[in-house]
Design brief:
Blueprint (H helix, E strand, L loop, with lengths): L2 H5 L8 H10 L12 E3 L7 H8 L10 H16 L16 E3 L7 H7 L18 H16 L6 H8 L23 H19 L3 H4 L12 E4 L3 E4 L5 E4 L15 H5 L35 H4 L4 H14 L7 E5 L5 H15 L5 E5 L4 H11 L6 E3 L8 H13 L3 E5 H8 L6 H12 L3 E4 L11 H7 L6 E5 L7 H11 L7 H13 L8 H5 L3 H12 L4 H15 L3 E4 L10 E8 L3 H10 L5 H13 L4 H7 L23 H16 L3 E5 L2 H15 L7 E4 L5 H13 L5 E5 L14 E4 L6 H8 L11 E8 L3 H20 L13 E3 L18 E6 L1
């Protein structure tokens, strides 16, 4: 009988054939006493236990290793049993063989409790070359690499071996006697098997260590590896050092910095060496070192990300982490998760580069939203600094905050006005100069939330932001196009200085101008002076040009010019909501209102006309109060209350519409939002509602204006959204355009026309956003025969340019961007079709 057959025999206690075979082959040592060896099938990398588990659907995560395990088992068996040899067995009583096997996979816990501590096989080998720690580690690494590289699939082999008579168990024998070193290279075989057994434990039993409460941990020379679904795991004993949820830097290995990167400095607007030292001795990192070959969101974030957020994350990395790093624009629709996406990116960026110091510039009102989001999505605790929470009002106090931010791994938040006031401060005392130096030199990356705010090149805000030395400036905006094409290119210049003078841009610029239709009053030479003519050409072509092919070519050129710098997402996730019905409702004014409108046409100041006319469109009785209130200034409530005694609701077209709409909302249990540009109309409606309905602020009515406390806004939102008693919300369209969620309401009333259409769009996005469970109806009220009609038409043209530039799709045939007129009795809104609400309606358009 060959030694291979002998080793494959069944080893159950008391089986005579097995005992006789061993006694015949090992008679020379029959008188030696032996203790029963323990065979523990946990300690085998190539036994049938693993392959059986795979065939029975267990350990599915190891299926990719089946072929490697099988081929390695064959190699070991061939080396061990490929020739005749004798293993000495003592004479006398037959050895007692104890087999510890996992016969019941469903009772793993009981099995692990009865298992004796695993013995190191090196104790039983006199010829054990792995006593050398360096060689031991080397072979461990080589075997692990072998298992990570598939050789070939061999499922039939695994099945055929499994159908054998259980001979795999014999490969797990642990002899307490020293093997005879005269058997050629048998010591090396035992050594390789010992290493293989240890390497296997991290593959199929990482949980045993936890169940045993860390028993035997002190006997393990841990060798930790990273698994992206578990964390840092010891490949020997399976202990988990750090779970994946706590690891931030898991895939953030730093890339080699090329000589090209080292010499790059063409984008430093201030002309300073970014590795210099501040006046107080603080060393600044070289921002050009922040370059990586790869950047990924943390697994916790990745599981929550939508496809457009993953795409946006990668777009950010391609700009910020390139060899020639620069800024970019993330123009994602309101409510699409820009804040979460950028928080994930910042944490990945800071995990790779602990020396990085991000600066986030944002409207002050949305600072609490950012901090709340950071607490929700942080993987590790990162300090967040700002001047408001610590009440740093003077330059000395602000300097202390800036020093802490620069010295500690942290993030700084500043408002736009606060930032520009420090950078543009002409005070030459040490503290103001130091504050300015910190803000311009320390930031490694700058995030500009609501980044359309600094869009006017003539303002201090845009100039101050442009003087920051880092090239990594990221603009976040839900409404990138505000008033003109020029403003968009001002933002492009902020993230990529002299954008139109870049080589790729200049080629497309000349192509656009050559294709545009030039009127007789404008010559090509005029278009060539500066960029004003270029911006005007784009607007005229998109709005006035009737040549469809020329318009299509222009849109394609604009997208080609900006595709590497601007990432646009129109908000496909919003299509999952119940829907939005956006209606422009033109109201007939009362005779008293029409007479007042005629008088206002003689005024020259456009803002003065709007400030005075808006209250009159609500009710003409507010004319005198409007003249004394100063437009957007404070409202004297004492002057409103006496007016209510002699008020006729029918004289005010917009007041009548509001009262009737509120009545219908009450009947269906819906909540109403009223947005306006001026405080007087909002305050008047609030007082009127309290008188007619008996509502009180904080119970049925809620208010947020520019004067509202920033910290109290979140409480107001939560009460309005969740309280069943809440009925109506009054908000300044500007104050509520950012960082506000009002998904508890399904009806929105826009009292007047804002000359910037994106402001109104942002306000509508407060209710029409993820979390909304009802269809949202918006009523934009326009007074017929007034200047509001012209303002509304101008705003719609601006919106059309934005839609054509960013959203137009030739394949969908979206050529018509005009308002769609609808009959009031077939407008798709149950409320507007009632006699109560359509009383003064002159026309309705669906936007």
């Amino acid at each position: 009988m060959s030694s291979r057959d002998k080793k494959r025999m069944k080893t159950d206690r008391g089986v005579e054939s097995s005992d006789n075979a061993r006694s015949n082959s090992r008679g020379s040592q029959s008188n030696r006493e032996r203790t029963p060896p323990i065979v523990n099938d946990r300690e085998s990398i190539v036994t049938g236990r693993i392959l059986e588990g795979l065939d029975e659907g267990k350990d599915e995560n190891l299926s990719e290793y089946s072929s490697e395990l099988e081929i390695h088992r064959r190699q070991l068996h061939e080396r061990l049993f490929g020739r005749e040899y004798e293993i000495p067995i003592p004479a006398g009583p037959h050895p007692e063989i104890i087999i510890i096997s996992d016969s019941d996979d469903q009772d793993t816990e009981e099995w692990t409790e009865n298992v004796e501590p695993e013995a190191d096989i090196s104790e039983h080998c006199t010829n054990f070359p792995m006593q050398d720690p360096e060689r031991r580690q080397f072979i461990q690494d080589q075997l692990y690499q072998l298992f990570d590289k598939p050789l070939f699939d061999e499922p039939e082999l695994a099945n055929s071996e499994r159908e054998d008579d259980g001979s795999d168990d014999e490969s797990q024998l642990e002899s307490e006697e020293t093997p005879d070193v005269s058997f050629d290279d048998l010591g090396d075989v035992w050594s390789e098997m010992a290493v293989a057994m240890e390497c296997a434990k991290d593959v199929f039993e990482p949980t045993l260590h936890a169940k045993n409460g860390g028993e035997g941990e002190e006997d393990c020379d841990h060798s930790f590896i990273f698994k992206d679904d578990i964390g840092d795991v010891c490949r020997i004993c399976g202990v988990i050092k750090r779970p994946i949820e706590t690891i931030v830097e898991y895939n953030f290995s730093k890339a080699q910095t090329s000589s090209r990167t080292r010499s790059y400095g063409g984008r430093n607007p201030g002309g300073h060496d970014q590795s210099e030292t501040l006046s107080d001795g603080l060393d600044l990192p070289n921002n050009n070192d922040f370059i990586a070959a790869d950047m990924h969101p943390h697994p916790r974030h990745r599981r929550e990300m939508k496809p457009h957020q993953v795409e946006g994350f990668n777009f950010l990395a391609s700009n910020v982490m390139s060899e020639n790093p620069g800024g970019c624009i993330m123009a994602h629709a309101p409510g699409s998760g820009k804040t979460f996406m950028i928080i994930s990116f910042l944490q990945s960026f800071m995990a790779k580069y602990p020396a990085a110091r991000p600066l986030v510039v944002l409207p002050r009102g949305i600072l609490p939203v950012w901090k709340k989001e950071f607490l929700t999505w942080q993987i590790e605790e990162i300090p967040l600094y700002d001047f408001y929470s610590v009440k740093a009002d003077n330059r000395g106090q602000q300097l202390q905050v800036l020093k802490e931010w620069a010295e500690r791994r942290s993030i700084l938040f500043l408002g736009y006005k606060q930032f520009s006031s420090i950078v543009c401060d002409v005070d030459d005392r040490p503290a103001p100069l130091a504050c300015k130096s910190y803000l311009l030199k320390v930031p490694s990356i700058v995030i500009l939330d609501e980044g359309h705010t600094p869009r006017n090149p003539d303002t201090a805000i845009l100039r101050s932001l442009g003087s920051i030395e880092t090239t990594r400036k990221v603009v976040l905006s839900g409404t990138l196009y505000q008033n003109s094409v020029r403003e968009v290119f001002s933002i492009l210049d902020l993230v990529r200085p002299n954008f139109l003078m870049m080589e790729d841009s200049k080629i497309i610029l000349r192509r656009i101008v050559s294709r545009a239709e030039i009127s007789s009053s404008r010559s090509l030479s005029k278009l060539g002076r500066g960029n004003g003519g270029f911006y005007k050409t784009i607007e005229d072509c998109l709005i006035k040009d009737e040549n469809r092919s020329r318009k299509v070519a222009l849109i394609q050129d604009l997208r080609e010019m900006t595709r590497k710098v601007l990432h646009y997402y129109k908000g496909d996730n919003l299509e999952e909501l119940p829907g939005l019905v956006d209606l422009a409702v033109f109201l007939e004014l009362s005779p008293a209102q029409r007479s007042e409108v005629e008088e206002m046409k003689n005024l020259q100041n456009r803002f003065a006309i709007s400030a005075l006319a808006s209250p009159i469109y609500v009710h003409p009785i507010l004319k005198e109060v409007a003249k004394n209130s100063g437009g957007r200034g404070r409202v004297d409530e004492g002057r409103i209350h006496p007016l209510l005694e002699k008020l006729d609701i029918r004289d005010g077209a917009k007041l009548s519409f509001y009262i009737n709409l509120l009545q219908l909302c009450e009947s269906t249990g819906e909540k109403l939002i009223v947005f306006g540009n001026f405080l007087l109309p909002l305050k008047f409606l609030e007082i009127m509602t309290s008188k007619l309905k008996g509502y009180s602020v904080g119970r049925e009515m809620f208010v947020i204006t520019g004067d509202s406390d920033t910290d109290a806004r979140e409480s107001v939102m939560e009460q309005f959204n969740q309280s069943p008693a809440a009925r109506v919300f009054f908000g300044s369209v500007k104050a509520c355009g950012e960082g506000i969620s009002l998904i508890g309401a399904s009806r929105i009333l826009i009292l007047d026309v804002h000359l910037n259409p994106s402001v109104t769009r942002q306000a509508i996005g407060r209710a029409f956003r993820p979390g909304q469970t009802r269809k949202v109806y918006t009523y934009r009220l326009i007074a017929t025969g007034s200047l509001e009609e012209a303002d509304h038409a101008a705003c719609f043209k601006k919106e059309s340019i934005a839609k054509m530039w960013f959203e137009w799709d030739e394949r969908r045939g979206q050529d018509n961007f005009e308002m769609e007129p609808v009959h009031v009795d077939a407008c798709g809104d149950m409320f507007l079709e009632t006699l109560l609400l359509k009383e003064n309606v002159a026309a309705v358009y669906r936007r």
